Amino acid sequence: TMIEARSTDVFRRGRTARLVEGKPATFTAPAEPGDYEIRYILANSYTLYPGMQQVVQTSVPIKVTPVEASISGPETAVGGSTIEVDWEGPDGWEDDIISVVEPGAEKFNRDSRDRLVTRGEPKKPATIRVPAIEGDYELVYFLQPGGKALARTPITITRAEATVDAPDTVKAGESFAVTYSGDGFKGDRVVVVPIDKADNSMWNVTLRYGFVAEADGTEGMVKPYAISGGPGEYEVRYVTGLQHQVLARDKFTVVE
């Protein structure tokens, strides 16, 4: 008796394991609970019979049960800062993550996340760098693979504060000092741009146009090559490392 040949997709977006003689097949269960099948599928891509390229030799049912998790973090955080998040969940599942996302989001934020297991050891608490843009967000425990959200808790991000102060006028071709203050989170920088440079295009303004904003710093030097447009109106801006937000600005003029 032959098991029915199935011409439809017998994988149905399922996970597969390549069989090795003498070793058990290993799978990661789906993220969504429910009734599933484990199928032995014949790897025969050379058959000439229509519909016989994917033959199910045998199958057994399996029930996937729900998994639970919980998270607890601060109610507020300064944009760009790093927070600690306590969590409870299935220890040892190396792909699970906690992420800061917009309310209701079903996908994690690659810039604000932390994997919960490192080299087989649970990481408690998780440490996550929050977005720089102020607003209401959620801390979400995502089951991986599958991306199922197991737990959510709200968090409000406030805008970080900073200041910059440049000379009123700067002579073309000379270095000049800029005083500043700010949190100096990773990637924060003080840069010079033309006065009409849009705030939402600061992602391509690198340190070539200024200097690193240090957490305990108060002054930095802008080199002549940071100003490539010649005499005219410019701004010095404090820009965050995440999402390149302009936190502070000061106008100045470049003269001959």
What is the gist of this entry?
The protein is an all-beta fold and 256 residues long. The chain has strands at residues 34-43, 54-64, 70-72, 76-78, 82-88, 97-101, 113-115, 117-118, 121-122, 126-129, 135-143, 148-158, 163-165, 169-171, 176-181, 189-194, 210-212, 219-222, 232-239, 246-255. It is elongated.
Counting DSSP E segments of at least 2 residues, the number of strands comes to: 20
Listing every helix as H and every strand as E from the N terminus to the C terminus, the arrangement reads EEEEEEEEEEEEEEEEEEEE
Structural class: mainly beta
Mean pLDDT: 88
How is the largest sheet built, in terms of strand order? Answer: 4-12-11-6-7
* Major sheet summary line: 5 strands, mixed
Q: What is the global morphology?
A: elongated
Distance between the termini: 93 Å
Count of individual helical segments: 0
Strand content: 35-45%
**Gyration radius, in Å:** 27 Å
* Share of helix, binned: under 10%
The poorly predicted ranges are 1-8
Describe the structure in your own words.
It contains no helices and 20 strands. The protein is mostly beta strands. It is elongated and about 85 Å long. The chain starts with 33 loop residues before the first strand and ends with a strand. Mean pLDDT is 88; it is low at 1-8.
Please specify the SSE layout and strand pairing.
Elements: E1 34-43, E2 54-64, E3 70-72, E4 76-78, E5 82-88, E6 97-101, E7 113-115, E8 117-118, E9 121-122, E10 126-129, E11 135-143, E12 148-158, E13 163-165, E14 169-171, E15 176-181, E16 189-194, E17 210-212, E18 219-222, E19 232-239, E20 246-255
Parallel strand pairs: 4-12, 14-20
Antiparallel strand pairs: 1-2, 3-5, 5-10, 6-7, 6-11, 8-9, 11-12, 13-15, 15-18, 16-17, 16-19, 19-20
